[in-house]
Here is the input.
Amino acid sequence: MKRAPQAPPRSLRRPLLLIGMVALGFAAVAALLLSWDRWFPLPPEQQVEVVWTHGCPCARDWMETLRRDGFTVRDFDLLDLSSTRRHWQVPAAATGCHPGRFLGYVLDGHVPGALLRRLAKERPRAVALMQVRSADPQDPRFELLQQDGSRAAWP
Here is the structure.
């Protein structure tokens, strides 16, 4: 005849119950943190993705500027950007050292937060927003790159 399992001695019940409750609490907190983005998603208009290599001297400054402007930047420090460029379908004309992605647009250059907000509001038909070299570095210029490769100054 099988004997029923015996309950732990009375002196161990309280500590085991306490340990179980603490473990359950940690599990609940871990589950919430791991699913945070699903429960509390950020609006896409606040999310920017950036890929860069550790040797890029300017990517950190641009990402910090975007964060100060209220954007959430997901950045990926990679050894090689070529696979991400292919996956994101970065146009060949976009040759910057840290491509970004925002609302489906490819970003090339140091696109300021104000311009990203305008891009989100107007949603022009384009595949990329690119910074263009200008004579005055204090006055950056930008162009929209169309699917067919044509460019238009913007804004």
Q: What stands out?
A: The mean pLDDT is 89. The radius of gyration is 25 Å.
